[in-house]
Design goal:
mainly alpha, 434 Repressor (Amino-terminal Domain), 0% strand
Length: 107
């Protein structure tokens, strides 16, 4: 497995997708996803763009650029957030605002 393959697998898992699930979204085969993750197949630029969109990440992030100095745990949360539907993202933002206000007042 190469660096890209590991990264693809990690982002896919964080997004809550199986290889088969990602393949369905992309209208490709599970074996194609498996081959990319194992480093046996190099995706085209078009496929990279489709992968990034399907996984809810930027192309730069998919290719290995770190998300603005976030810890590994924060990066997982960030990727999970990006995979949420719009309504859930709004709920999460509201809850984060609530927690920030609650813990700011208690200081």
């Amino acid at each position: 497995m190469n660096d890209f393959g590991r990264r693809l697998q990690e982002i896919r898992i964080d997004a809550g997708l199986t290889q088969s699930g990602l393949a369905r979204v992309l209208n490709t085969s599970q074996s194609a996803i498996s081959q990319m993750e194992r480093g046996e197949r190099e995706p085209s630029f078009r496929m990279l763009r489709r992968l990034a969109k399907a996984l809810g990440v930027s192309l730069a992030h998919l290719l290995g650029k770190d998300v603005d100095e976030l810890s590994p745990a924060e990066q997982v949360h960030f990727r999970q957030y990006r995979s949420l539907p719009a309504e859930a993202k709004e709920e999460l933002r509201d809850f984060a605002d609530y927690l920030r206000q609650k813990h700011t007042r208690s200081r």
